[in-house]
Amino acid sequence: MQTSTVFLTLLALCVVSFFVGRHKSRLIGMAGGGLQSLHSLPTHYGYMAALWAGLPALLLFVVWLAVEGSVVRSLVIASLPAEVRAQGVDQLGLYYNQLVGHAVGNIEPASLDATQLAASAVYNEVMNYSRNLKMLLVCLVAIIGGMLAVMRVKPDLRARNHVESIFTWILFSCSFIAVLTTLGIVLSVLFEAIRFFQAISITDFLFGLQWSPQMAIRADQVGASGSFGFVPLLVGTLLISAVAMLIAVPVGLMSAIYLSEYASRRFRSITKPVLEILAGVPTVVYGFFAALTVAPFIRNLGESVGLSVASESALAAGLVMGIMIIPFVMSLSDDIISAVPDTMREASLGMGATMSETIRKVLLPAALPGIVGGILLAVSRAIGETMIVVMAAGLSAKLTINPLEAVTTITVQIVTLLVGDQEFDSPKTLAAFALGLVLFFVTLLLNVIALYVVRKYREQYE
Amino acid sequence: MTTADAKAYGAVPQEAVGLDVQDHVDVADYQTIGEPYVENAKMSARNVNVYYGEKQAIMDVSLDIGENEVLSMIGPSGCGKSTFLRSLNRMNDIIPICRVHGDIQLDGEDIYGSGQDTVLLRARVGMVFQKPNPFPKSIYENVAYGPRIHGLAHSKAEMDEIVETSLRRASLWEEVKDVLDQPGTGLSGGQQQRLCIARAIAVSPEVILMDEPCSALDPIATARIEELIDELKERFTIAIVTHSMQQAARVSQRTAYFHLGKLIEVGDTKQIFTMPRHELTENYITGRFG
Ligand SMILES: Nc1ncnc2c1ncn2[C@@H]1O[C@H](COP(=O)(O)OP(=O)(O)OP(=O)(O)O)[C@@H](O)[C@H]1O
Ligand SMILES: [Mg+2]
Predict the structure, then answer these.
(1) B95 touching A (Cβ < 8 Å)
(2) Does a structural domain hold residue B28?
(3) What are the chain B neighbours of A351 within 8 Å (beta carbons)?
(4) In angstroms, rounded to a whole number, what is the distance separating the alpha carbons of residues B62 and B50?
(5) Is the same domain home to A127 and A178?
(6) What pLDDT score does B128 carry?
(7) Which tens digits make up the pLDDT trace of A404-422?
(8) Does B1 map to a domain?
(9) Is A311 helix (H, G, I), strand (E, B) or coil?
């Protein structure tokens, strides 16, 4: 509520600055012999004023929000009696949280002592002060910024270039934020993983052939083995992904070729959107389909020819995952094949090549880098897919390459590790971060390979 | 012809045809001036009509291309030169809305006949396009593409031989003989166009169709291609579309002038350029239109 008020005020100030800046530049331009005497269009001066009003104030606002909490906390704690402050860090934290809870009206006063009640009043007071000060300062900065910009409006002020470079900076900071958050995620996973590797040795994890992350909660608990060998998970993941890609790549690629080269325009304009909708079906729905239809079907089929098939199998999960990925592969490949210039088709057909020769010898080689890129994206999707596997391939971490047995994957194990009721620093939960880290490296590796392949063919084909 | 009439034909934007000089020429039911037929015809078109959907792009054109001659086709933009040229090796089949009516023969055989195979036809009637369009493959592979498809070489040595001869005939060999494994797309525009010509002649076609082969090239590269066309006519029959009157005069023996989908006049190149018999032709070649 408070935040949005400040925000709206700021926005209003920006709009006002825009109009004032534009108006002033118009006046100056008219006085100087027409708008051509200005370096930039009046709107540019307006934008400049608005940006000057908005950006520094916004920055102040964000910084304020970021530090407000800790400043208020130290002010309130400083007001507490010495013996309260002498408590341990955790206790003091709880104490403080309680009084804040009361201050915002979540906790009944009955459960607090008198000092807390007093401090909670102090808290409210400080917060109030901070709020007002924030509002005041933000508005002040905005007004000063806008005024400075408006004062600078002169015919030879290069407002257009100025606005342009400010936008460049805004765009840059956005991409910087994206990079930074990614880095943050990777680092946080990395630190947790390191904690895990302090409990379980890294070689046991990477080369162990046994995965059963049952840690004992009590010392005398039975059935708690606690082995964290991740090889079965990796093999299971790769197995299911391989089955999926065996389905998705040929079918996807060939339907893409049909759509882009043979199908009539009408057929294409209907089919493509439909398949793209198919790509948007939530994977849990596919999971249903896999568990309730495909898996029993495969089991019955296997039994009828005398094979023993588990009721949850890698084959079922892989098949359905493949079906899920077909539209993805198809849509990407279709775009890429269609992007090969028509002059290539004409050249090949003009030499007397048939359509299929043209596709094999000219279109596919030319489109290959893009297609490989698309397929690797699809592989990443297959590796990251969780829901279908949970439902159709089971949870048992068996080390096998037989697609008729139940296997499990890295992502599925991450889920099962974190939904347990273990404390958060036990090896069992920390293992999830180690798995996440491995997953990260596997996809990274895939991308590196993709880049390599793409570059190699680029060299060959340009 | 009035402006309204011109609109009725619908084929060409006004500024391209220069309506002001054609007031008394009725293009609608027009008989070609000059001699469209030759004795030793390699290809002969009779009463050809080409439609793009509802729109007619070629109207009742009859024209022969003689053995080992260079026939040039000129005319204002949009008059149907490319359309006519492309119907000679059925490249128009690729365009779904395009229909070709009439009779076109190669060595007395109907190329639109039911038994005709476009694969064989296009091996005999090759094509060079307006923009150089080498494949994104090596120079060697570009030239070897056609022979591979048609199974012309039975060994690596034979293929090498074909590639070398074709590149020599396209007078590109000296420039690329050491870089045959480099991508063809890395050559200059003029070299690329010669590579495309080498690619076209590698399958030993009998006829080569060229659609403005020099329009993307500088004068020097153009001169080389023109020399090349002069040499190629010893072995091949060539039909070339060009916008350059000088080029038509330099390389061709016969010239055909198209206008609004009609073949207006055809005859010896020399006669067409010195004594055009139709006013439209004269206006076009003297640059007096628009
Ligand atoms: N693919 C197509 N679809 C529909 N109409 C077409 C198509 N190609 C050509 N046309 C039409 O047919 C007519 C003749 O076109 P064409 O390309 O044969 O002209 P052109 O003489 O080669 O012109 P230019 O000298 O500009 O190349 C034009 O009116 C053009 O709009
Ligand atoms: Mg053309």
Answers:
(1) no
(2) no
(3) 122-123, 126, 145-146, 149, 199-200, 203
(4) 12
(5) no
(6) 93
(7) 888 888 888 888 888 866 6
(8) no
(9) coil
Residues A342 and A446 in one domain: yes
Question: Which three-class secondary structure state does DSSP give residue B259?
Answer: strand
The mean pLDDT value for A247-274 works out to: 91
pLDDT-derived band at B12, boundaries 50, 70, 90: very low
Kindly identify which residue of chain B lies nearest to residue A265, measuring between CA atoms.
Answer: B96
Query: Is there a domain that residue B32 lies in?
Result: no
Beta-bridge partner residues of B103: B46
The backbone region for A33, taken as left when phi is positive above 0, alpha when psi lies in -120 to 50, beta otherwise, is left
Quick one: which of A212, A196, A93 has its CA closest to A437? A196
Nearest CB to A352: which of B133, B150, B186? B150
Binding pocket residue ranges, ligand 1, CB within 6 Å: B 11, 52, 57, 75, 77-83, 95
Asked if residue B224 belongs to a domain, the reply is yes
* Global confidence as pTM: 0.74
Gap between the Cα atoms of A460 and A366, Å rounded: 10
For A144, the token pair is 């000063």
Q: Per the CB < 8 Å rule, is A346 touching B91?
A: yes
- CA B149 to ligand 1 centroid distance, Å: 30
Asked if the model's pLDDT at residue B15 lies above 60, the reply is no
Output the six-digit token pair for A294: 């495909």
Q: Which amino acid is at A45?
A: Y
pLDDT recorded at residue B81: 94
Residues paired with A155 in a beta bridge? none
Tokens coding A219: 């010392």
A447 three-state secondary structure: helix
Q: Quote the pLDDT of residue A39.
A: 87
Q: Are the CB atoms for B98 and B123 separated by under 8 Å?
A: no
As a whole number of angstroms, the distance between CA B198 and CA B134 comes to 10
- Containing structural domain, residue A104: 3-157
The strand pairing partners of B128, in sequence order, are B210
Report how many domains make up chain B: 1
Give the closest residue (by CA) to ligand 1 atom 3: B52
